[in-house]
Amino acid sequence: MKIYQTLEDRENPDEIEENGPFLCERKNAWLGPGFYFWEYFIKNAHWWGDKAYNGKYVICQATYDDTDKQKIFDLYSNYEHKDLFVKTIEMMKYYGLFIENQTCISTVIDFLISKKLFPYDAIKIDGILSKGNSSSKYNFHVICSSNRPSYVDLIPAVQICFRKKDVLNLKDYKIIFPEKYIQ
Known about the structure:
Number of strands: 9
Structural class: alpha+beta
Mean pLDDT: 87
Strand content: 15-25%
Low-confidence stretches: none
Number of helices: 4
Largest sheet: 7 strands, mixed
Shape: globular
Strand order of the largest sheet: 4-5-8-2-1-3-9
């Protein structure tokens, strides 16, 4: 599966290709510390570059082995994982550890890790409405009905966050944007 990492352009393409991918340790990283990639759709990598780095960014492409489903906590398409996440939130609410509209996804994941219920190497998730509805440059929506606000997002903002650099057979990491860095 092709994936894309968006980085700030610091005019260091050799360092990027020699040392990438790069760990995100920001306090507001929604899935906690890890190596964040956009899955399949490069438009999402460009969207993040424009949003996070004001258009001064580099996109690297890699591939990973998406056949080993046991290693991915899949909150995008695995209903059992989604159910576990909901039950975890319900338990956290019961014990006063989850506050609606304040507790982040990374906190729930940290709770699962602390209870030894998280044997996964990566997290896969869809950032619903993360790109918003307004930009046709990065979105491709088709409405479901003319009298309802529902729609189908055909370029979902699916991210995969690798918890370690050497998991899921991550390989072929290379710069693919901007063109001036392609060798």
